[in-house]
Amino acid sequence: MVLEKVTQDACFGCGACVVACSQGVLSLKINEDGFLFPELLGECTACGLCESVCPVLHPPRVETKAEVFAGFSFSKNLRVWSSSGGVFLSIGLNFVLKGKVSGVVFDNDFYQARHVLTSDPREVLQFSGSKYVQSNSTSALRAMKNSKGPFLFSGTPCQIAGIQNLIAQGILQGDFLLVDLFCHGVPSYLLWWSYLDFLRQKVGRILQIEQRVKLRDWHLFHCRVFGDRGVYLKSFLDDPFMFFYLRNYFLRNCCYQCPFRGLRSCADLRLGHFWGVFFAQDRLGTSLVAAFTDKGLRWLIEDEDIFLQSMPAEIVPASQALHLSRPVNAESAFLSLRHGTSIEDIFRKNFIWEWRKKKIRSVLFSFVERNPRLKIIRKIVKYLWRG
Ligand SMILES: Cc1cc2nc3c(=O)[nH]c(=O)nc-3n(C[C@H](O)[C@H](O)[C@H](O)COP(=O)(O)OP(=O)(O)OC[C@H]3O[C@@H](n4cnc5c(N)ncnc54)[C@H](O)[C@@H]3O)c2cc1C
Ligand code: SF4
Ligand code: SF4
Ligand code: SF4
Questions:
Q1: Does ligand 3 lie within 6 Å of residue 333's CB atom?
Q2: N or C: which end of the chain has fewer CB within 10 A?
Q3: Which residues pair with 152 in a beta bridge?
Q4: Is the CB of 270 within 6 Å of ligand 4?
Q5: What is the 3-state secondary structure (H, E, C) of 173-240?
Q6: What sign has the CA pseudo-torsion 281, 369, 364, 238?
Q7: Sequential pLDDT tens for the chain (387 residues)
């Protein structure tokens, strides 16, 4: 049985074992550290099915070669609603004419994110925008198990690895287009829930959360929250959740040793943000797109609503982190969170100076990045501010 062989530290929380379980006795629950982990709720017959689909025990084949593009939707609306270039929405809206699409939404109370499966284009629009917490994919995967495709599933690379194993075992059947992300990692729900408490103090009952709003500039994105008592609007540089997330605090353990960084994927397509000088003047958002399979490439180039520009694969390591290090004080910060210290208090007591330094640096760098003629100054700034 999978729980005897996979530790909580190694588990991705992908949910494949839960969907495979022959007795339906596994469920994906949030553990005391705030991470999704399978739990045994009934009698196990030791059939071994859950083990056979676990990507930790049986890593599926990972592709490392891809055709790489910069891309964005020709529709300004789709682009503005999306996290980067709106490539996902464009493909998703085309796909839903032929099959079903699975993407991520928040629950009504924002307590958790989850995958849903739909054939309704209006629901596909709800998938736009990154939700920076781990989504529970099990009910969407069960819906796929019980219905006919073709299916488009979009999720984190480790969720796709679980799906590849479910397909290989014949538990999921049909035609799949699998889309993953250049994935930074997923933070603990303890951080997310503490952030929700912080937001409720500002805006009352939360009605809508947008974690990547493009106001003036896509590079300097904002977090916007609507509540029944007001609106919270902060640049990502001033938002405590984004501060911790982007500084690699409170992430799931496996994310620090993720086997899917850079160009390593089990999906057909991978999407991310196209950082760097090429589209530095762009205000609306550009996606970094990698096609690992012919099927992925076909869906991409046959989509007449997407602008595509071929790029060398070397652009990927230049714009995406290939390794993620755990900050030295990550464990003590996690202990404070576990003991109920609020996100605001942890931030104020231990991180205010780091935040000030980071903010000045980010503003400086983003200004220099967007002015290629300042390359020499950039080099000097980098040299003076190294480490
Ligand atoms: C947790 C997470 C970490 C990421 N880390 C990076 C990174 O380090 N570097 C980078 O370049 N890009 C990262 N991305 C991807 C980036 O934010 C955009 O999603 C991507 O550029 C695609 O943009 P888009 O405009 O095409 O579509 P978007 O509007 O972003 O929609 C893309 C798709 O993401 C799916 N999605 C949203 N939230 C989740 C979730 N919690 N889990 C699984 N799927 C989800 C939606 O269902 C939708 O299908 C990350 C995304 C997530 C969710
Ligand atoms: S061994 Fe079989 S019955 Fe037991 S949890 Fe795994 S899949 Fe379910
Ligand atoms: S299948 Fe996924 S959720 Fe289940 S134990 Fe393995 S990694 Fe964890
Ligand atoms: S960083 Fe890797 S292990 Fe963590 S959620 Fe993303 S794909 Fe999964």
A1: no
A2: C
A3: 101, 177
A4: no
A5: CCCEEEEEECCCCCECHHHHHHHHHHHHHHHCCEEEEEEEECCCCCCCCEEEEEECCEEEEEECCCCH
A6: positive
A7: 999 999 999 999 999 999 999 999 999 999 999 999 999 999 999 999 999 999 999 999 999 999 999 999 999 999 999 999 999 999 999 999 999 999 999 998 999 999 999 999 999 999 999 999 999 999 999 999 999 889 999 999 999 999 999 999 999 999 999 999 999 999 999 999 999 999 999 999 999 999 999 887 788 889 999 999 999 999 888 999 999 999 999 999 999 999 999 999 999 999 999 987 777 778 899 999 999 999 999 999 999 999 999 999 998 988 888 899 999 999 999 999 999 999 999 988 888 877 777 777 777 766 666 666 666 666 666 666 554
- The answer on 274 and 129 residing in a single domain is yes
**CA–CA dist 360, 212 (Å, integer):** 21
Distance CA 93, CA 91 (A): 6
Q: Would you say the CB of residue 25 lies under 6 angstroms from ligand 2? A: yes
Looking at 10, 31, 53, the residue that finishes a domain is 53
Nearest to 124 by CA among 155, 147, 97, 101: 101
**Helix, strand, coil percent content, the chain, rounded in steps of 5:** 35, 20, 40
49 and 9 both lie in a single domain: yes
Q: Is the CB of residue 21 below 6 angstroms from any atom belonging to ligand 1?
A: no
Element of type H or E holding 308: strand 306-311
Helix/strand/coil for 81: helix
Tokens matching residue 79: 């682009």
CA 6 to chain centre: 23
**Ligand 4 pocket: which of 136, 260, 325 to mutate (most atoms within 8 A of CB):** 260
Cβ distance 71 to 307 under 8 Å? yes
Residue 41 shares a structural domain with residue 122:
no
Residues 12 and 159 in one domain: no
Kindly state whether residues 259 and 302 are assigned to the same domain. yes
